[in-house]
Amino acid sequence: MADNNLYGIIGLGRFGLALAENLIDNKKTIIAIDKEQSKLYPLKETVNQLIHLGELTKDSLKEAGIGDCGTVVVCIGKDVEANILATLNAIELGVPRVYAKAISNDHGRVLEKIGAKVINPEVDMGAKLAKTLSAKLTLDVLPIGEDFSIIEIKLNNKFTDKSISDLNFRGKFGINVVAIVRDDKANGYIMPDTELQKEDILVISGNNRDISAFEKENSK
Q1: What is the spatial distance between Cα 188 and Cα 84, in angstroms, rounded to a whole number?
Q2: Which long-range CB contacts under 8 A does 28-32 form with residues at least 24 apart?
Q3: pLDDT per residue over 114-132, tens digit each?
Q4: Alpha-carbon span 185 to 46, nearest angstrom
Q5: Do 136 and 96 belong to one domain?
Q6: Nearest-angstrom CA–CA distance, 61 and 87
Q7: Looking at the predicted structure, is the pLDDT value of residue 137 above 70?
Q8: Are 144 and 97 in contact (CB under 8 A)?
Q9: Parallel, antiparallel, or unpaired: how do β-strands 3-10 and 29-34 relate?
Q10: Is residue 26 domain-shared with residue 51, that is, in the same domain?
């Protein structure tokens, strides 16, 4: 039986690492997997189940414990074939909730066809945003598990013209910035000196309690 408090993260690039760190902060148990040994190092002090897998076969993922997870997030980026294979194998292992990162609309359509919920933080989201922009500052919510979400939120002007480092979202609010949407295009390459601009939309991840607190602060 799947454990709803056990999360599998496959692929530890920028997005996967941010997701893992936030789940760790929220006392979740994680199985973190990557094809590159070096990608596991940042988590060696905080995650017990760090697994280096050269091939993401169904058998290897089962042996790693992915089939026991309540939620699996496939964060592999550029290697579309590995992304789709890992997603399909996680689904076939009976994981109740499988999310997968897409790098294009076509890639996302394939993931949806095999039964995954699609995350696309680095894809042009102009068409989607055009439909969702409204007076509300919170534009969209993607729940992952019972108390963790990824949301799009339109920034209050008090956060503009300041860098990610200065604002310290992680330290002050317990949230991670996954991407910045500017001029209807999403950018997941976030640096400490990246400055936020008026009308920016943030894609953030975090515990629902922390996200709610940030939403209240952002609405003031």
Answers
A1: 20
A2: 28/145, 28/148, 29/3, 29/5, 30/6, 31/6, 31/7, 31/64, 31/65, 31/66, 31/69
A3: 999 988 765 444 344 333 3
A4: 34
A5: no
A6: 11
A7: no
A8: yes
A9: parallel
A10: yes
Last residue of a domain, one of 101, 119, 137: 119
- Quick one: pLDDT at residue 121? 60
At 63, is the pLDDT very low, low, confident or very high (cuts 50, 70, 90)? very high
CA distance 105 to 29: 31
CA distance 3 to 164: 35
Q: What pLDDT, on the 0 to 100 scale, is given for residue 143?
A: 67
pLDDT of the residue at 168:
92
pLDDT in the model for residue 216: 84
In this predicted model, what pLDDT tens digit does every residue of 162-190 receive, in sequence order? 999 999 999 999 998 888 888 878 787 88
How many Å apart are CA 17 and CA 40, to the nearest integer? 9
Check whether residue 133 and residue 92 sit in a common domain.
Answer: no
Residue the block writes with tokens 């056990």 = 6
Q: Which residues contact 50 (CB under 8 A, 6 or more apart)?
A: 32, 40, 43, 44
Task: Please answer whether residues 150 and 144 qualify as being in contact, where contact means their C-beta atoms are separated by less than 8 angstroms.
Answer: yes
**Residue span of the structural domain in which 144 resides:** 126-218
Q: What is the pLDDT of residue 124?
A: 41
Tokens of 83: 């992304």
What is 87-156 written as a DSSP string?
HHHHHHTT-SEEEEE-SSHHHHHHHHHTTPEEE-TTS--HHHHHHH-SS-SEEEEEE-SSSEEEEEEEPP
CA neighbours within 13 Å on the CB side: how many for 142? 20
